[in-house]
Amino acid sequence: MLNAYLKKELRDFTLDAELTVEDGETLALLGSNGAGKSTILKLLAGLMKPDEGRIELGGLVLSDTAKRISRPAEERRIGYMFQNYALFPHMTARENISYGLLMQKLPKRDCALRVGELLETLGLSEVADEPVTKLSGGQRQRTALARALAPHPALLLLDEPLSALDSKTQERLRGTLAGVIRQEEIPCILVTHSVLDTLSVADTTAVLERGRITARGTPEEIVHNPAYGFATAENPNMFRGSVWVKESGAVCVRVGCVDFRAVTTLSGVVTVSIRPEELILSRSRLESTAVNSFAGRIVKIADAPEAGTKFVQVDIGIPLTAAVTQQSVERLAFTEGERVTVTCKATAVNVFG
């Protein structure tokens, strides 16, 4: 378990934050550029010194300014995955992963076993002896994660771990990242700008604004709170759900109390995204091949980013937002508080690991 209080005078503001992360919990830090997210990671890792504060990890005090305690970075048992991965370019994937273990003077047999285990878990066995300069972006990302995890850290710090990858590789690796973190059962802090990363990987989310944590809650509570604008930055219809299969064989994703029919081979906990333009609003149930149809009440009608389009938010048990042309809103005379039906195809329900 991590308990930390950190205070540091920065150029534009004073960072003043308190963090608690349980074993097996992943906390996502969301915030704008320059809010102090990466600074928090550096303070925890011992790469920067706080002006004031205390860090306790697994019952061991790593830093306490009042008592002048400050353990060096190499003694903190913290795995740190940098945004640019910071792999050693002259080494192979296996050598990069082994590095921290060798610095700990771990017996070679034990080192080989741990590295082999991570290579297998992260699907790197076939490229283990390739120079990292020849690896793909996804393979480098997994190598960096394996290197951070190899010494059995007591805390894992991830600084924008997927930001350098293309969107398809990000989709593929989110599930891998979440699964490996949960398997290690250690506290983890994820710094990210991505709502998808937050919903896919985090258990808890905190909003950091000018060095202060202004909100904390589940990823859904933070992402869908309009006060922060995170969901609308990418897509207002982003949720965490779980896949289940009906007796008929139909695949569904349950989000809150709502079951969406979907097309996916994934299982377990997933992230769900539905583009607003894929949703159809009507006053009554449509005769359609679309298998997802829900009755709800219009909560809000607001301007969408695209000119001539309105966002119509409907409460169907969860908040679902449809993109409707201004002409359609006027022609159908939609008003807030009115009951409507929301329809979409199973293929419109995008499911990510």
Indicate the percent of residues in helices: 25-40%
Rg result: 23 Å
Q: Identify the CATH class of the largest domain.
A: Alpha Beta
Counting helices, strands and paired strands, the structural category is alpha+beta
Could you give me the name of the CATH homologous superfamily of the largest domain?
P-loop containing nucleotide triphosphate hydrolases
The largest pleated sheet is described as:
6 strands, mixed
- For the largest beta sheet, what order do the strands appear in spatially? 7-8-9-3-10-11
What does the model show?
With 353 residues, this protein is α+β, with helices and mostly antiparallel strands. 25% of the residues lie in helices and 34% in strands. The chain has two domains: 2-228, Rossmann fold, CATH 3.40.50; 238-352, OB fold (Dihydrolipoamide Acetyltransferase, E2P) (Beta Barrel). It has nine helices and 21 strands. Strand 13 (251-255) and strand 14 form a beta hairpin. The longest helix is centred in the middle third of the chain and has 18 residues, at 167-184. The chain is globular.
What labels describe this entry?
353 residues; alpha+beta; Rossmann fold; OB fold (Dihydrolipoamide Acetyltransferase, E2P); 2 domains; 6-stranded mixed beta sheet; 5-stranded antiparallel beta sheet; 9 helices; 21 strands; 25% helix
